[in-house]
């Protein structure tokens, strides 16, 4: 994932191409992302692990890689986490929780068409804003222990259920036209998920701008004209 | 998005759930996928490496993992490939080439709306059919050496250019209504790419069935009614 760096350094490949493939891995974990009762050193370790897991994958990351990222000795990790897998779990759990919260914040809008639009925009904007954490949440779940995967899958189910319920309501109320809800919900969610592969905060779109654009595209997929009142 | 599988399986979190997250890794590399001048042992090593890279990532895979998959000693890899990175390159190069060929096979249709539909269907069907190879092609490119990444990025550019050119033509001819070609082409490609994360050949959709369904959704996104003549 060093291509962005490499190219910015003056290589011959154009910026957009590699950027698209290997989203930049700046540590975009904002203050307040991790649970409030997490010690500052533990938060720093989680943010370092996000970068490591996103760059080389969970299995290839050592505890030494994670601690080195914050200038600590390898043993320091075990003061805060029982294992590397627990670090991944804390990232995946918190990441999915925050994404769910972003959707829930929109979930009391009145009109079903507007609700679907807001949910898609929130979904896309969250994944763009937090693309490095989201990359770990999407691609590294196979590293979780079964009981931890259960917790994360439950959060994912609640997330998908929010979107599905809004689409079903819009369909029932006649403001959307959706021949197959399974395909439509999956496709809409893919718009947000896949951007973690290529999105960069210094690219052409702000998270909010991309959220707006993709929400319009999603409404079209769901059979609603975005320019209807 | 393992939700459907979990329910279908009836258990609390049967194998199917995790399997959907980490799409099935059956070696779905058909005979004839690799270059014809590749020796049979080298082909077997490539297919084994596809499974290893898809399961634990390029960086965490050892040459021993790859050779063990075909019952050979670790040194056997170097008879056929100079390095593990060259194995990844051969997979990525061939995978992108085959996907490009699948699109090119549709690229001489007459009507622009039909052409776009066929390209999306071919894109989605290819990624579903070859989801394990495609997973490596989408998620493991950061393991490539710069000169190899260049080759693969060129193939990706040609791939995206085919789709973009069809969308632009449809837009120019008035059969599509596309406010922003960049967003639209990215969104359409995401439908095919993201399915490598969750698709299983033994799931609800055949590769061709999913290709058809997503082609309809893509035409809606692009402002064409799929039921127009």
UniProtKB/TrEMBL annotation, chains A, B:
Annotated ranges, domain HTH tetR-type: 39-99
Annotated DNA-binding ranges come to 62-81
InterPro entries assigned to the protein according to its UniProt record, in alphabetical order:
DNA-bd_HTH_TetR-type_CS, Homeodomain-like_sf, HTH-type_TetR-like_transc_reg, HTH_TetR, KstR2_TetR_C, Tet_transcr_reg_TetR-rel_C_sf
Q: Which domain of life is it from?
A: Bacteria
Which is one Pfam family of this protein?
Answer: TetR_N
**Key words, A-Z:** DNA-binding
Entry's transmembrane regions: none
The protein depicted here goes by the name TetR/AcrR family transcriptional regulator
């Amino acid at each position: 994932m060093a291509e962005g760096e490499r190219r910015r350094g003056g290589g011959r490949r154009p910026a957009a191409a590699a950027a698209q493939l290997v989203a930049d891995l700046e540590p975009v974990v904002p203050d307040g992302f991790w649970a409030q009762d997490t010690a500052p050193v533990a938060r720093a370790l989680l943010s370092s692990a996000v970068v490591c897991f996103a760059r080389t994958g969970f299995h290839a990351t050592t505890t030494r890689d994670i601690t080195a990222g914050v200038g600590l000795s390898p043993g320091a990790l075990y003061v805060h986490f029982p294992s590397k897998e627990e670090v991944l779990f804390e990232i995946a759990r918190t990441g999915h929780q925050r994404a769910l919260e972003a959707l829930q914040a929109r979930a009391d809008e009145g009109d079903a068409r507007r609700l679907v639009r807001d949910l898609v925009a929130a979904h896309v904007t969250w994944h763009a804003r937090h693309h490095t954490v989201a990359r770990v949440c999407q691609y590294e779940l196979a590293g979780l222990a079964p009981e931890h995967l259960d917790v994360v899958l439950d959060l994912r189910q609640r997330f998908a259920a929010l979107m599905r319920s809004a689409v079903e309501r819009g369909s029932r109320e006649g403001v959307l036209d959706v021949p197959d809800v399974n395909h439509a919900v999956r496709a809409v969610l893919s718009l947000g998920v896949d951007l973690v592969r290529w999105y960069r905060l210094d690219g052409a779109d702000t998270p909010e701008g991309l959220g707006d654009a993709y929400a319009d595209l999603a409404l079209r997929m769901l059979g609603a004209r975005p320019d209807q009142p």
